Amino acid sequence: MRIILFGPPGCGKGTQAIFISEALAIPHLSTGDMLRSAVSSGSEIGLKAKNIMESGGLVSDQIVFSIVEQRIAKDDCEKGFILDGFPRTVNQAEKLDSLLSANNKLDYVLRIKVDEEEIIKRLIDRAREDDKPDIIKNRFKTYNSETQPLIPFYEDRKILFNINGMQEIEKVSEDIKKIIGVF
After folding, report:
1. Is the CATH code 3.20.20.140 the one for domain 2-178?
2. What pLDDT is recorded for position 108?
3. Tag placement on the chain: N or C end, fewer CB within 10 Å?
């Protein structure tokens, strides 16, 4: 099963991805984690991404796509995967569609919806280095302008499902279970 978890930073994608990953025995692929790992390794891609990430901007499609492409080509993704934080633009979504064969297309895009004020509070509370209020607001603004066009993109394909992320974690999980029909 190939799933995308979609929503602004701090909406709970990572938490839900862990539950789904364990239930389906498929890998959780967080582009944020992959990018942070590249930055900490000092790789060429990591150095390019570092300045962009520190300002709260989106890393270029080319950099992110190459990281994702390399990762989903690994054997553990053969039965599926959960993408968390990718795609973020229609261009990335179109490239992902081209990459996946007809037999390995996306099954579900799960959009977790949370209010902006709640997201800012959640991100400040988790206290990661890149979760400062001004960076958070810039990331949310960037999310709204760059990522919102993905909603009609996936609605047209009839694979987008909206989930109320303002609920308790367990209730969000239950809603996801009902949609994907497993656990």
Report:
1. no
2. 97
3. C
